[in-house]
Design a protein that fits this description.
Length: about 450
């Protein structure tokens, strides 16, 4: 396997695996916080059981995410030593803050898990709040480092060396706000739809009253979070599109597969991407110009303004972008249908439950595709205008073997996580069946 391809494949696999646990680490504590708060307010046992079940899942996901995140931290230095030599002193601040947020999260997860029946109910409930906040901050700090890679700032390059570093200017580079918002809201979208999908499937199979009450409570809480997050994500995504058009025109042109600079530029959906045109696509004339400048006759920069050696992989970026937007469109539709049915106080139809169940994996697909757009759209740069990916990779041998080895580790971690989460669900179900059996 080619040296650069092996390094990128290993890093990409690690990121694709870890981002799921990072997202759930941001969103699930919020669901736990809401569920326990609902129990304190209403006294309904279903909310208490739900909070305890989700809390166990939160612990499992946090542990697996900590392992995969630690692997990523080592891979940055092992696979990309040249990049770290340039960037280590510049983006060290957000990584340090991320470590601090991680430890705060770990401390309060311990307090929360072992505080059941040991802390006052309100005090125990409030322990979930720092978990939710520190989880979101942890993701935000890492995302600011990624934003810097898309628009390096906060330093001077003199004689090939980085000098005059301003850590705050680097941390708050141009894309930081839109990227942090997009990533954070995505975590709530994935967690909301993911938890709702599990509840929808369970509700389709549930028979007994107590179990159904807890599942319905979980479905309602999860869908409220999802239905609130997905419209916000569309607004943030719209803002990012205009930002990319102005600050990252090569990535934007690849997303929309716009080969030629033009006025009245169309939005292009689907199609087979060739070297200089796309075939079989659906085009909406003038829509891209309107998206960028609210003017259907505005000029939009195309790929013809990008030097050939700086072109991103257009077909991959466009496909990833279409998957992200298509999946997000489905999620918005499902959220609207659920809200309509729920507000009319009808029993949730089975068809809607199946649609919610499908929304879970599609939310993950949307998030992964969005991450691909960010990473592939930056190529061939690891830090735009500063360092190319091919110049940043390690010269150490055996990268292909390392890729296969770490891929096996992720398979084991994923299988272990699946088994543990299944055991959490089976244990709760067994406890409820025993409780029902003892009821006269």
């Amino acid at each position: 396997m080619d040296h650069v391809i092996a390094a990128r494949a290993q890093m990409g696999t690690s990121l694709a695996f870890h981002i799921v646990f990072a997202a759930l680490g941001v969103g699930l504590p919020l669901l736990v916080f809401i569920a326990e708060g609902a129990w304190l307010r209403t006294g309904r046992r279903a909310y208490y059981d739900l909070a305890r079940t989700w809390a166990k899942g939160m612990a499992v996901l946090f542990a697996v995410g900590a392992v995969s995140g630690t692997i990523l931290a080592f891979e940055l230095g092992l696979l990309w030593p040249v990049f770290m030599r340039y960037a280590g002193a510049i983006i060290g601040l957000p990584f340090s803050l991320e470590g601090f947020a991680f430890f705060v999260e770990a401390i309060f997860i311990g307090l929360y898990l072992y505080g059941w029946d040991r802390l006052q109910p309100v005090a125990h409930w409030l322990c979930a709040l720092p978990i939710a906040v520190s989880g979101a901050l942890s993701a935000a700090f890492v995302t600011t480092a990624n934003a810097w890679m898309n628009a390096p700032a906060g330093f001077t390059l003199a004689g090939g060396k980085v000098v005059d570093v301003d850590p705050l200017a680097a941390m708050f580079s141009a894309p930081w706000l839109v990227e942090v918002l997009h990533t954070t809201v995505a975590a709530y979208v994935v967690t909301g739809f993911g938890a709702a999908a599990v509840c929808a499937l369970a509700l389709l199979r549930a028979r007994r009253g107590a179990t159904r009450e807890r599942i319905r409570a979980g479905l309602t809480i999860a869908m409220i979070v999802a239905a609130a997050a997905i419209p916000v994500q569309w607004i943030v995504g719209d803002t990012i599109a205009r930002f990319d058009a102005q600050h990252e025109p090569a990535k934007f042109a690849a997303e929309e597969v716009l080969f030629h600079t033009q006025r009245h530029a169309p939005i292009t959906i689907g199609g087979i991407v060739g070297s200089d045109r796309v075939r079989g696509a659906i085009e909406i004339p003038g829509a891209l110009s309107w998206l960028v400048a609210f003017d259907p006759n505005a000029e939009v920069a195309g790929l013809d303004r990008v030097p050939p050696r700086d072109l991103p992989p257009v077909a991959s970026v466009h496909l990833s972008f279409d998957v992200m937007v298509g999946a997000a469109s489905y999620l918005l539709f499902v959220a609207a249908v659920w809200a309509f049915v729920a507000l009319r106080r009808r029993t949730m139809p089975r068809l809607v439950l199946w649609a919610i169940a499908a929304a879970g994996p599609l939310s993950v697909a949307a998030m992964e595709a969005g991450w691909f757009v960010t990473e592939l759209g930056r190529q061939p740069w690891i830090a735009v205008g500063l360092l190319r990916t091919t110049d940043a990779v390690t010269i150490a041998p055996g990268l292909d073997l390392a890729f296969y080895g770490f891929s096996f580790v992720y398979v084991v971690l994923g299988a272990t996580c699946w088994w543990l989460l299944g055991r959490v669900g089976r244990t709760r179900a067994a406890g409820e069946r025993a409780s029902l059996a003892e009821t006269p």
